[in-house]
Structures are given as structure tokens and as C-alpha cells.
Amino acid sequence: xxxxxxxxxxxxxxxxxxxxxxxxxxxxxxxxxxxxxxxxxxxxxxxxxxxxxxxxxxxxxxxxxxxxxxxxxxxxxxxxxxxxxxxxxxxxxxxxxxxxxxxxxxxxxxxxxxxxxxxxxxxx
Amino acid sequence: xxxxxxxxxxxxxxxxxxxxxxxxxxxxxxxxxxxxxxxxxxxxxxxxxxxxxxxxxxxxxxxxxxxxxxxxxxxxxxxxxxxxxxxxxxxxxxxxxxxxxxxxxxxxxxxxxxxxxxxxxxxxxxxxxxxxxxxxxxxxxxxxxxxxxxxxxxxxxxxxxxxxxxxxxxxxxxxxxxxxxxxxxxxxxxxxxxxxxxxxxxxxxxxxxxxxxxxxxxxxxxxxxxxxxxxxxxxxxxxxxxxxxxxxxxxxxxxxxxxxxxxxxxxxxxxxx
Lengths: 124, 273
Ligand SMILES: C[S@@+](CC[C@H](N)C(=O)[O-])C[C@H]1O[C@@H](n2cnc3c(N)ncnc32)[C@H](O)[C@@H]1O
Prior knowledge:
The complex is a heterodimer of chains A (124) and B (273).
Chain A: H1 3-8, E1 24-32, H2 39-45, H3 51-60, H4 79-91, E2 92-100, E3 107-111, E4 114-115
Antiparallel strand pairs in A: 1-2, 2-3, 3-4
Chain B: H1 4-7, H2 10-13, H3 16-24, H4 26-43, E1 52-56, H5 62-69, E2 73-78, H6 81-89, E3 95-98, E4 112-118, H7 134-148, E5 149-159, H8 164-176, E6 180-186, E7 195-201, H9 223-231, H10 240-253
Parallel strand pairs in B: 1-2, 1-4, 2-3, 4-5
Antiparallel strand pairs in B: 5-7, 6-7
Helix pairs in contact in B: 3-6, 4-5, 7-8
Residues 10, 14, 32, 57-59, 62-63, 77-80, 83, 100-102, 118-120, 123-124 of chain B line the site of S-adenosylmethionine.
């Protein structure tokens, strides 16, 4: 699971959960993959990203490095910043671990990089 | 023709053996890729830009591969672990989730620029478990899909409706969830080539494009192409071809399997097949 996906993911499909965001990450295995950098794509992604959630997620995985706490102004032309955002969003991956719903405490296991979001009958 | 969705629930039907068989069959690959290409065309994404796309029922990543080829980034969800395992083996570029579309799309509002689903939606019309109610599952799916799309984004879902009622059932639930649109039928007069695409729009009602191989398709104004040109805003930093070639070269260096470059690489395909 990439942090881009984590930034979009909620547990609101669980019965009784309202927002279900952000999910807490407990990671036991994290890796950094090599992904092509497309500055235009990253810069159009930024408005959709909840930046503090991305920052905290990267920090909790020990991969915050020099990611800024806030998005700089005119980031569209700031290649250095876009590269850092790219790394956090697309290159850092959780391979094993779990996601935890902030409202219900429900855990979603992550195996081989794939979060298991399947619900039980009584959760639908 | 027997319908797999009558045989077993998807997570059982698409077991390890079936997932491998499915992904290695060149006929299946060709059909899935053609339909994916057409679905992407019907999404009317801004040209020459990389978009973030949700692939629902992504399976082993055949449809996702076509999203890659078109330069998009995708997140896929599927209910079958065996299919997702094959996707991992194939080192697909998309990020994967194990999830049941009938339980809803688990994403925050406005997350995706578009969504495709190739040959998965008909599975939702069946009650595989005693507590499954197709109408409710379809509604849950469409309403949460609607929510996770960005403004004016589209969803295009190719599916195999069993009969007119099923088409009606699916369309009604989609409209109830807030979507505009309807079903585009390609090659309606050919039993073999006939394909159904549910084209869903979020940003207001616009005329549906004509199906391929229908009367008036060639003589009428090609609405989708005209709108695409209208929606085109500015050029990307790199040309689409340049960026795809670079990406392929990188994958080759990593020792991954890459389709050979050709004069068609990175060219806007007509999507006609
Ligand atoms: C015919 S395959 C198509 C896979 C891929 N889209 C392609 O074009 O190759 C259908 C896929 O839909 C998935 N599917 C069926 N019902 C589903 C559900 N309720 N939620 C998520 N995926 C489902 C199946 O597991 C299977 O991988």
C-alpha cells in the first residue's frame, strides 16, 4: 500500500462508522520502490491530498525525511518539493502491517502490500 | 454460454487455477484489453495528462495494464485474493486492495479522476450469500462510487447483463445514487462483438456517445472527440510518447517485462475495434 492510497482510504463502509479517516498505520515491513517521477501528475494530485495525513503517515513509517510540514506556495514549479511529495506518495510502501479505524478500532490487515478491506456480515 | 456468476461466488470462482488460466489465455487478454481501451476512451479524460483512476474488479491487472499504457496511475480493488496474487506476480504498477464492491468503495470524497470496471459488475446482480440483497449492494456500490469521484469525473463499466431486467436494475440504482448517463451498446447487431458499457457522469446530464457499429455512428458528429478537444487544456511537460517510452525503458532496466515500442506507442488510439 502506497501512502497515496492510504491518503484516499477510509473505513466509512463499516456500519456505524461516520468518517473513518485517517486510518492509523501499524507497519511491520516497509519498502521504498522506484517509481517514475511525473511532476505534472504530482502537482495535480496535491490539492486532493490531505497533507497533514500524508506527513503523519510518512513520519509513523520513519520515512518523513525532509518532507515539509506544509505544502509551499507555488509548489507547481517547485521541482524539489514535488520530488519529495512523489517519494512519499508513490515510492514508500507498506508491505505488511495493519490499518486501524480511528472510530471503531477495527483492524484491517495488510499482506504483501494489499490491505484487506473485506467486512463481516454484521459490519455491512 | 454458461455464466460464471451462476456457478460460484467470485472469490471462489476465481481461485488460483482459474486466475492463472484467465490471465494466460491470449484470447481473453485481447478482449479485456480492447474493452479496457474503449472504456478509457469513454472516460473522456483530459488529453495528455496522467490521471488517477480507480479500477473496480481489477483482477490480475489486465485492464490496469491498459491504464498504464495510456499513461495513467491506478488503484485497483478486487474480491479475489487469487486474482490479486497473479497481479502481484505480474508486478502491475497499480496499488491493490482486497475489497468487495458490494460493500462500497472505501475512499474519501473526490479521490479519483475517473473509474473503470471491466467485466465485473454482473457479479453484483447475484445474491451469493443469504444476507446479500443485490438492489442494496448495487446502491451501496454506486452511491459510494459517486462520492469518491472528483467533480465532472466519469465512471465507465463494461458488463454482461443477463437480460433487460438486469440492465434496468443496474441503471436504476446508478441513477438513484446521483449519476447521469446510461448504457452505450457497441456493435449491437453482432452477437459476438456486442458489448455493454454503462457510462456514468457526475457533472450533469450530457448526451451519451453513440455505440460503435451503430447507425449514424460514422455520419453523426463524433461527440466524444469534439468534447475531448474542448477539454484539452495546455500541454504536459513531456509529450505522452516521450513519457511512456521513458517509463518503458526504466522498466526494462529493472528487468521487467515490457511490450516492445512501436510507432503506435503513446499514440492516441482510436479505440475502434
Ligand atoms: C472477468 S474478471 C475481470 C478482471 C479485470 N478487470 C480484467 O479486465 O481482466 C472479473 C473480476 O471481478 C471481480 N469481482 C467480482 N465480484 C466482485 C466484487 N463484488 N467486488 C470486487 N471484485 C469483484 C472478480 O474477482 C474478478 O477478478
